[in-house]
Structure formats: C-alpha cells, structure tokens
Design brief:
By secondary structure, the protein is an all-alpha fold. It has three domains: about 5-105, MazG-like (Helix Hairpins, Orthogonal Bundle), CATH 1.10.287; about 145-220, Helix Hairpins; about 225-279. About 75% of the residues lie in helices and about 0% in strands. The protein contains 13 helices and no strands. The chain starts with a helix and ends with a helix. About 5% of the residues are buried. This is Nucleoside triphosphate pyrophosphohydrolase. Pfam families: MazG (PF03819). It comes from Sulfitobacter pacificus.
Length: about 280
C-alpha cells in the first residue's frame, strides 16, 4: 500500500480495525514512528494492559457507559500493541490471534456451534467448560493440577483460580462452615505471630488468612476483587459525605477526631439505610 493510501486509511473515521492496526504500525515504525512507542516491549506494556482492564471494570461498576466506550477502546489498543510487537518478532499476527480465540470459542461451546444438547444448566455448562479447558491443558503438556494459572493475576483472583483447580481433584471443603472454622484458626495464628514472631512470619500468616478468605468468597459465589472494590467505593463515598458534614461545621478531618468522625460515619450509614428503605 502506498504511503498516501496509508495516510488516507489513518484519517478515515470508518476505517475500523484496519485503521487502528495501521496507526500502530506507523507508531512503531523504526524510522518515522514515535520514539516512545518504538522503545516499548512486552514487559513495559504489560502494566498498562492490566491498568486498562481495571479501568474497564471501574467504568462498568459506575455504570458510566460513555466512559466504558472509551476504556474498551484503550483496552483494545493494548491487544493491538502486543500483537504488533508479536508480529515484528515473528511470534504471531493480529490475524492469528483472532483466529486462535475464534477457534477456542467454537471448541468450548459445542452446545452452540456443535451437536451437543443446549438444554443444560449454567452449572453444567461451567463444568463442561472446565473439562474442555483441562483437555486443552493436557494437550499443552500441563500435567500438574496447578500449572498454567497466570502469575500476573491479582493475588485474590489467582487464589480463587488455584482453589478451583484444587476443588476439581477433591482438595476442598464441602461446605462453608468448615471454611469459617479455618478462618478462625488462621486469625488466631495471625494474632500469635503478631505477638511472638517477626514481620516475615506475620506476613506469612496474613497471607494464609487472605487465602482462606478467598476460598470463602468462592464458596459463597462472591468474586473477592469485585467485593473489595465495592467496599473501596463505599468507603470513598461515605468519607466524602463525612467531609461535607465536617465542612458544614467549619472543620476539616484533621481538625476533627476519631469519635466525631466515627459518629458521622454511623450517621451516614443510617441515612443510607433510610434512603434504601424509601426506595
């Protein structure tokens, strides 16, 4: 394609994915591209990819659909970035990545694209999905139960994935009561470590407690990352309201004290419950 044709595509608002791919090629051009983009590699871009995925989740949580549109574009750019670098290194191309995920979706949904009966529960479909994934791992010579769980996942998400793998081979509690008992046990060990051991031991016991908490989340059908993000938003909103109420009194948080702010916190919670009841 001639240079002017490339330029026409780059400036074509209806150019679709071909336009975005060409923009990335131009950004990465070693002679005429952007110096910053040229210097990047898989390792340097990976943190941005993770950040963009979280920003997508944040826009969804806030139900900000115009923002989500933009964030999805940012996340798509990350895929285009990685595939451009993969193509330059001879590893894969955007077309091969698209073909790979398309083949995978067809293979994992035989009840939609094949001859299997579609009349099954969501739980059965999930079990079938996991069985197909296990077959895929076997084909990649991943023999260990816990092999192949991505190291770059958030800690609690990875803990849940590890526990799902363990549950498939029967290494799991059968009901939540046993998990709650284990939480009490681990909390006791954390207290003991705090009182008698060094910082490394405290961190180790704290990690054990978090791992069991992730297991409880799985048993309850709760995604722990989603749950903690929800609590983070709640804390932000409530403390923002505390600051407003303090401002009405001519104060800032640093001019207040714990007792006053705790009382305001409880008042905000009571107002939230009242509003929920009215709604």
């Amino acid at each position: 394609m001639a240079r002017n044709q490339n330029h026409d595509l780059i400036n074509d608002p209806e150019g679709g994915i071909d336009r975005l791919l060409e923009i990335m090629r131009r950004l990465r051009d070693p002679e005429t591209g952007c110096p910053w983009d040229i210097e990047q590699d898989f390792d340097s871009i990976a943190p941005y990819t993770i950040e963009e995925a979280y920003e997508v989740a944040d826009a969804i949580a806030r139900k900000d659909w115009p923002e989500l549109e933009g964030e999805l574009g940012d996340l798509l750019l990350q895929s285009v970035y990685h595939t451009a670098m993969g193509e330059e290194a001879g590893h894969f191309t955007f077309a091969s990545v698209v073909r790979n995920i398309s083949d995978k979706m067809v293979a994992r949904h035989p009840h939609v694209f094949g001859d299997e009966n579609r009349d099954k529960s969501a739980d059965q479909q999930t079990a079938d999905w996991e069985a197909i994934k296990a077959q895929e791992r076997a084909g990649k010579a991943q023999r260990g139960t816990l092999e192949g769980v991505a190291l770059g996942l958030p800690g609690m998400t990875r803990a849940v994935k590890l526990q799902k793998r363990l549950a498939r081979v029967g290494f799991d509690w059968s009901e939540t009561g046993s998990v709650l008992d284990k939480i009490v046990e681990e909390a006791g060990e954390l207290v003991e470590a705090r009182d008698t051991m060094d910082a490394d031991a405290v961190e180790d016991e704290f990690g054990d407690l978090l791992f069991v908490m992730a297991n409880l989340a799985r048993h309850l059908g709760v995604d722990p990352e989603t749950a903690v993000r929800r609590t983070n938003r709640k804390v932000e909103q409530r403390f923002g309201e505390i600051e407003k109420r303090l401002a009405a009194l001519g104060k800032t948080p640093s001019q207040s004290n714990l007792d006053e702010m705790d009382a305001l916190w409880n008042a905000v919670k009571a107002d939230e419950r009242s509003d929920a009841t009215k709604g």
